[in-house]
Amino acid sequence: MFNQEELAILARQLSALDASFSLLPDYEESEALAPMESVLSELSSRMADNYPYFHPFYLGQMLKPPHPMARLAYSLCLYINPNNHALDGGRATSAMEKEAVAEIANMFGWREHLGHLTGGGTFANLEALWIAKMLRPGTSVAASELAHYTHERISRVLDMEFEKIPCDASGRMDVLELETRLQRGNIGTVVVTLGTTAAGTLDPLDAILALKRKYRFRVHVDAAYGGYFTLCEGLSAASRGALEAMAQADSIVVDPHKHGMQPYGCGCVLFNDPGVGIHYKHDSPYTYFQFGRAAFRGDQSGMLPGRRIGRRALGHSKAAAFSGGRGVCRCASMFQGCRHVTVPVVRGRGRLRDGYGACAGYCSVVGARRHCPGQFSLITKGV
Ligand SMILES: Cc1ncc(COP(=O)(O)O)c(C=O)c1O
After folding, report:
1. Phi, psi of 120, rounded to the nearest 5 degrees
2. Is the Cβ–Cβ distance between 137 and 168 less than 8 Å?
3. What is the C-alpha to C-alpha distance for residues 86 and 79, in angstroms, rounded to an integer?
4. Is 185 left (phi over 0), alpha (psi -120 to 50) or beta?
5. Pairwise CA distance, residues 330 & 6, whole Å
6. Is 201 a pocket residue for ligand 1 (Cβ < 6 Å)?
7. Which of 11, 195, 286, 342 is most buried by its number of CB atoms within 10 A?
8. pLDDT tens digits for 194-214?
9. pLDDT digit string (tens) for 101-150?
10. Residue 154: is its pLDDT beyond 60?
11. CA 130 to centroid of ligand 1, rounded, Å
């Protein structure tokens, strides 16, 4: 049932990826394969206890296995295991994350945005409500009684009051009831669910936006489940109207690991005002800042100009990476206390030597190795 040709494609592309590192000294993983196969054999037999989500006969779960394309891409990336938390943890994938998030934002009609991928919808919603709290301190959150249960919990975590708004007979937030609550005051954010988890219903976003103009609350759209339905044809006028109105929301959550057919866990949070990035700004010594760009969690949004270079703790060692050339001299002091320093060299051996000299002035360099053009390692004395 599983497509074997898929595995052949994966094998070919893994060889291509492998070949792109061929300038590195030869190395092969030495773990014994036979015991791995017996562990894998136990795993495959235990996995058979799952329902066959992939089979067209299986209708009981709202979620699906990933698209074959996503499955292949994910498997390929596992051989590198990049981490987009910082650029040196995932240079290529950080760039791809920005491209993917921009395409998701475009899907909702946003040209400008700030956003990034998360581990899932819950965390994405938490970030959206956290920003709501930062912008409207002391106000409460309102969501329909069919909103995902985590909104109430997230509000509690964020120490925000939470109000549950009843639904009408078709499972959509009752707008009259919402207005009554708004008149009482203090609702700073309304969570509008487009695709309720239990019923698949869409809150009347267009009507709620009309109330926003009067009562000036933030609108956060939780489209974790239903957001991708904006790509569907044949929707009713009410559904189409609600989905198209998403362009006017302040923030949106959508889950690529649901109807985006990506592997778990992949959520996405989007803000229509990139200026909210000011609340993400941080000064942690272990998260990497690139020249002229700031690394937010999982996203290099390019919002915060800066010249800082961070050191990143990796177990017992510390690593730092930076662009070669003049930056080397300017920032070599940051290497104090580092044990491994990876230096991507932009041009020429002269600059490499300059950089090496500058680093040696600040930390005790005990060895150096050129891996391939553009990549150079300095081994410095232990911390
Ligand atoms: C509308 C809605 N919001 C949020 C979530 C939570 O998403 P996750 O399970 O990815 O954390 C779900 C999950 O079903 C959902 O349907």
Report:
1. 170, -175
2. no
3. 18
4. left
5. 48
6. no
7. 195
8. 999 999 999 999 999 999 999
9. 999 999 999 999 999 999 999 999 999 999 999 999 999 999 999 999 99
10. yes
11. 17
What region, left, alpha or beta, does residue 215 occupy, with left being phi > 0 and alpha being psi -120 to 50 degrees?
A: alpha
Separation of alpha carbons 317 and 339, rounded Å: 6
C-alpha 225 to ligand 1 mean position (Å): 6
How many whole angstroms from its chain centre is CA 338?
A: 28
**CA–CA separation, 235 vs 92, rounded Å?**
37
Q: Using CA atoms, how far apart are residues 106 and 231, in angstroms rounded to an integer?
A: 12
| Cα distance between residue 187 and residue 161, in whole Å | 9
Sign of CA dihedral 153, 157, 163, 165: negative
Tell whether ligand 1 has an atom less than 6 A from the beta carbon of residue 94: no
One-letter identity of residue 190: V
Q: What is the CATH number of domain 87-279?
A: 3.40.640.10
Tokens standing for residue 96: 């791809």
Query: Residues 167, 146: contact at Cβ < 8 Å?
Result: yes
Question: Ligand 1 centroid vs 195 CA: distance in angstroms?
Answer: 10
Task: Confirm or reject: Cβ of 220 under 6 Å from ligand 1.
Answer: no
Amino acid 53 reads Y
- At residue 257, φ and ψ (nearest 5 deg) are -80, 0
Structure confidence by residue, pLDDT tens digits, 212-228: 999 999 999 999 999 99
